[in-house]
Amino acid sequence: MTIDEERKKEPRFHGETSEKSHKNMSRIRGKDTSIEVALRKALWAKGYRFRKNYKELPGSPDIAITKYKIAIFCDSEFFHGKDWDALRTKLEKGKNSGYWVKKIQRNMERDQEKDKMLRFGEWTVIHFWGKDILKDTEECIKVIEEVIFDQKMLEVTDNGECGLYS
After folding, report:
1. Can you tell me the distance from the alpha carbon of 109 to that of 111, in angstroms, rounded to the nearest whole number?
2. Which of 35, 104, 140, 150 has the fewest CB atoms lying closer than 10 Å?
3. DSSP labels for 137-150?
4. Shortest CA distance to 72 belongs to which of 85, 82, 63?
5. How would you classify the pairing of strands 124-129 and 70-75?
6. d(Cα 77, Cα 128) in Å, to the nearest integer?
7. Distance between alpha carbon 141 and the CA centroid of its chain, in Å?
8. 7 lies in a domain?
9. Are 108 and 52 in contact (CB under 8 A)?
10. Does pLDDT of 94 surpass 50?
11. Does any domain span residue 56?
């Protein structure tokens, strides 16, 4: 089996779209979205340095804190299937339902595949929903800082130090 055969086929849209739909879809960005920028600014303000859209890792994480091997994805609710059962029901009633259901299911599968590859490479993977980032950026920062703290504690115990006075 070739690599192309192993790759899952990505859904392609082959219908007609209205001018309004075309205009809306053309404005959807793949990187530097408002949710990514909000989280990056907050991390930078706290003194954390990172890579953005780090292509050397599977899935090109939106934010990669290489010092701690943390891959962060800022996922939009629609394209990554938040509350999938409710969303799927809604999509099945709308236009181009076959395309959208397949597309979002494939996005969710791809998310799981890249997470698995990153964890295999000993990276910690964190996903945040876009609205959670915009609503409470500080809580997202706390989650990241907890992961960093846990990693520092593991590093200390792995080195045989007690961590109190070292």
Report:
1. 5
2. 150
3. HHHHHHHHHHHHHH
4. 63
5. parallel
6. 10
7. 15
8. no
9. no
10. yes
11. yes
- From 125, 74, 106, 111, select the one nearest 10 (Cα to Cα): 106
- DSSP assignment of 101-115: HHHHHHHHHHHHHHH
CB 63 within 8 A of CB 40: yes
Domain count, the chain: 1
DSSP codes joined into one string, 37-95: HHHHHHHHHTT---EES-TTSTT--SEEEGGGTEEEEEE-TTTTTTTHHHHHHHHHHST
Does a structural domain hold residue 165? Answer: no
What are the two backbone dihedrals, phi and then psi, of residue 64, each rounded to the nearest 5 degrees?
-125, 115
Task: State if pTM tops 0.85.
Answer: no
For the cut 60, the answer to whether the pLDDT of residue 162 exceeds it is: no
User: CATH number for the domain including 152?
Assistant: 3.40.960.10
The CA-atom distances, in angstroms, between 166 and each of 3, 154, 155, 159 are 49, 14, 12, 11
